[in-house]
Design brief:
Blueprint: E1 37-38, E2 44-45, E3 55-56, E4 70-73, E5 76-79, H1 92-113, H2 121-132, H3 139-153, H4 157-220, H5 228-236, E6 239-244, E7 247-252, H6 271-281, H7 321-330, H8 332-342
Antiparallel strand pairs: 1-2, 3-5, 4-5, 6-7
Length: about 350
């Protein structure tokens, strides 16, 4: 059990100033304490107090008998202790802070050193020197390079060359195919447009050719002015144009849409033949023919033409197959007379 100074609480902890002596603690004046006491640790203590504080701000809080042990510094009173055998009174707050920091540093270093436990120092030094030889190469880059080297070392150069060549060929083939497809599409579009243009121009040309021939042949037949358009329309109903060997061919069709012929030899029926046929069957649409004067017709040798002034289409100078067909179909007797007059069979 320890003694405490009057007015001091039991839990007030102070630093203990001990003065060893052969017969107990002595005061600085040399007086002997009347009743020496022993601390819990086996050391004697000063009677009348628990322990002395290292620093106080008010000297009056210290027992009067102990105030002589304090010196004033910077407004505080410090216990004046002479260092002995390595012990002295010092501010341990900063030391504790530094000690805590050092302990923390040691703990951090220990954690950092764990991955290197059991590592041979010489081997580590050699490894560091080898790594330094690579300059700025990072471990990740080195690892990638090693993995790449291992992968390449396992490749067969011949097979790898074939594979690379095959990949390049397929890539080039794909590019050429795409270019060809694009070009083919462009050309097909151009051909389609050109074909449409040619067809349009061909149709226009056929129409022009048919109209031109119809108008020309109708004009030769000398239709009435008011009937010209009607005759041209009537002729156009039986006229068809087509392209053969790069040329426009004008054909005359029958009522069934089949090409007409003039004889057994397959001679095509022309627009002129069709106009003559219409003039013969519809004479009211045409102007009357001019009357010829008396006299002989060329090639008759002074004999008047058979048929009462009818032109003989079997004569050499007036040979006309269309007129022959018309006469044979409409006036067979007259046709027979004209053939005999011309000496035709």
């Amino acid at each position: 059990m320890t003694n405490r100074a009057p007015g001091r609480p039991r839990n007030d902890r102070c630093w203990l100033l001990r003065f060893p002596g052969p017969r107990g603690y002595r005061r600085p004046s040399g007086g002997m304490l009347e009743r020496p006491f022993i601390t819990r640790g086996g050391m004697p203590r000063i009677s009348g107090m628990d322990m002395l504080k290292a620093v106080v701000t008010d000297i009056n809080t210290v027992d009067e008998a102990h105030r002589a042990y304090y010196v004033e510094k910077n407004g505080k009173f410090f216990l004046n202790v002479t260092p002995a055998e390595g012990f002295e009174l010092d501010d341990v707050k900063g030391l504790k802070t530094a000690l805590g920091a050092e302990r923390n540093n040691v703990a951090v270093l220990k954690e950092q050193l764990k991955p290197y436990e059991g590592l041979d120092a010489g081997a580590a030094r050699t490894a560091i020197e080898r790594v330094a030889a690579f300059g700025d190469i990072t471990p990740d880059a080195a690892r990638t390079a090693v993995e790449t080297a291992e992968r390449l070392s396992k490749l067969d150069p011949a097979k790898e060359a074939d594979r690379i060549a095959g990949e390049k060929f397929e890539a080039l083939k794909g590019q050429l195919t795409a270019q060809w497809t694009l070009r083919e599409t462009e050309l097909n579009t151009q051909v389609k447009n050109a074909t449409a243009t040619v067809e349009s121009l061909t149709g226009q040309l056929q129409t022009i050719m048919a109209d031109s021939q119809i108008k020309s042949e109708v004009a030769k037949a000398n239709p009435l002015d008011d009937a010209r358009d009607a005759v041209e329309l009537l002729v156009s109903k039986f006229v068809k144009t087509s392209m053969k060997d790069g040329k426009v061919v004008v054909e005359v069709l029958d009522t069934n849409g089949n090409p007409r012929i003039k004889d057994v030899n397959g001679t095509p029926f022309t627009v002129a033949d069709l106009v003559a046929e219409i003039r013969e069957s519809r004479a009211s649409l045409f102007k009357p023919e001019e009357k010829r004067g008396l006299g002989t017709q060329p090639g008759t040798h002074g004999n008047p033409p058979a048929g009462g002034g009818q032109t003989n289409p079997w004569l050499k100078d007036s040979w006309n197959i269309t007129q022959q067909m018309l006469l044979m179909n409409t006036k067979p007797e007259l046709a027979k007379q004209l053939k005999q007059a011309a000496g035709a069979k």
